[in-house]
Design goal:
This protein is α/β, with parallel strands linked by helices and 270 residues long. It is 43% helix and 13% strand. It is globular, with a radius of gyration of 18 Å. Bound molecules: 6-hydroxymethylpterin-diphosphate.
């Protein structure tokens, strides 16, 4: 394992994100939230200006820029910032404003070219379809094989485009049913073994609501933490979460005090 997994905290500067929509829509509140996440131990703060939740309609690029740019600029002075966008123009302006990583849920060639041109980092995520309709009837013959093959191809393209670091992300909840999500989470060790650093984001997502028998978005912290902890133990390079402080605390347990296969050689301290 090369170093600790990074914790990426989420700030959505949107009126309609599924978890924090409307909470950080004003620039000053979003900046304050980002600073709070850095203070809680986030290694990266991911700033987004367009909800990509199931059923979301696309946002006008000018509006997306208006939402994110002042937030990226302010937070980039405090720590490492990624821009969560599927638009090349937004990626370009955000990188100019100080974003070090482009987080692209569409893994598209034009967006990775922007990151590559300036040597920024790049996250290539898998999505089947588009947010407006992706959850209507997601279909795969072999979800793990198909997603892993797509990510291998996109990672190679991003490296060839000049991106400084590349992460691949199976895209939990993006054109996937519950069984698809669970299969991809179960296969994280295989994706890690493929060699490109892996990022995973399951925080507060709908499938966790279903698995917990209907927990509301704000009541999915424990389920989110369980998945993030499983992912970190499976060797991912980064987890994308809303709840940074508990994730950092969990990371400490996993990596400072890893469970041992062997019986203790000393009596534990009283
Ligand atoms: N999930 C969301 C957005 N961006 N990026 C990556 N790399 N991986 C993810 O799993 C991922 C992502 C959706 O979550 P959120 O930002 O909380 O909600 P919304 O899209 O409604 O703004």
């Amino acid at each position: 394992m090369a170093g600790l997994p990074l914790v990426m905290g989420i700030v959505n500067v949107t009126p309609d994100s599924f978890s924090d929509g409307g909470r950080f829509a004003e620039h000053d509140v979003a900046i304050e939230r980002g600073l709070e996440l850095f203070a809680e131990g986030a290694d990266i703060v991911d700033v987004g200006g367009e909800s990509t939740r199931p059923g979301a309609t696309p946002v006008d690029p000018q509006e997306e820029l208006r939402r994110v740019l002042p937030v990226v600029e302010a937070l980039a002075a405090a720590g490492r910032v990624s821009i969560d966008t599927r638009r090349a123009a937004v990626a370009e302006a955000a990188v100019t404003a100080g974003a070090a990583i482009v987080n692209d849920v569409s893994a598209s060639t034009d967006v990775m070219a922007v990151a590559g041109a300036v040597g920024a980092g790049y996250v290539a995520m898998h999505m089947q379809g588009v947010p407006a309709t992706m959850q209507v009837a997601p279909t795969y013959d072999d979800v793990v094989a198909e997603v892993h093959a797509f990510l291998a191809e996109r990672a190679a393209a991003a490296m060839a485009a000049g991106c400084s670091s590349v992460w691949v992300d199976p895209g939990i909840g993006f054109g996937k049913g519950d069984a698809h999500n669970l299969a991809l989470l179960g296969a994280l060790p295989d994706l890690v073994a493929a060699g490109t650093p892996v990022l995973v984001g399951a925080s507060r997502k709908g499938f966790l609501g279903r698995l917990t028998g209907g927990a509301a978005v704000d009541d999915r912290v424990e389920a989110s933490l369980a998945v993030a902890t499983w992912a970190m133990a499976a060797g991912v390079a980064a987890v994308r979460v809303h709840d940074v402080a508990v994730t950092v605390a969990s990371r400490r347990i996993v990596f400072d005090h890893p469970p041992s296969r062997h019986p203790p050689s000393e009596e534990p301290a009283a």
